What we know:
70% helix; mainly alpha; disordered C terminus; 5 helices
Amino acid sequence: MGRGRVELKRIENKINRQVTFSKRRNGLLKKAYELSVLCDAEVALIVFSSRGKLYEFSSAGSMTQTLERYQRSSFSPHDNTTKRETECWYEEVSKLKAKYDSLLRTQRHLLGEDLGPLSVKELQNLEKQLEGALTQARQRKTQIMIEQMEQLRKKERQLGDLNLQLRDKLQREGENLKAIQDFWSSNSAAAGNSNFLHSSQASHIDPAPEPILQIGYHHYVAAESADVPKSMAMAAETNFIQGWVL
């Protein structure tokens, strides 16, 4: 004899209602799982009991992922594109935030902070990273010092060449100045000899007698010629004395 048709209505008995809910809920979850496996379908099931307890099943492993796919499929194409772009940006921001947190945590570890949760292996890896970073820093410092030394040597050579050029220039100018001084000295010596010759020649020429002013008496000067008698000269001298006495 076959099973009769069950009338679909609310079960008034609380215990029977709870038992029926448990049985049918388990059967529904089993059917959803079988459907997802047999037909390779993405199935999501959400059930709330009369007391508000949640029961859910998702073949994708995450109910949120299935709900987002449902929302994308339910909107219009324009809204769907905007939503997809928003989700892509949200995923990108989430990745960047996770990467930032990881870098910040690594930085704290490199500074010697928050080392408590790390295991021995993680501490060994951290030690290797620090040793590698220290080696690279020393190599870079040595390279910079070598480059600076090469620049200083190059500058020293340039200054040495400039010093030699200035020395040669100064030596040439000194030689030119000495030649000019020798030239002027020779000219001055020649001019001095010429003046000396002129002065010696002029000393041999007797100067012309200057006129003598006589007041009150006559002064007779004896001439070099033999025409003037010696007596006249003595007389003039005598007259000069007598006139002065008077």
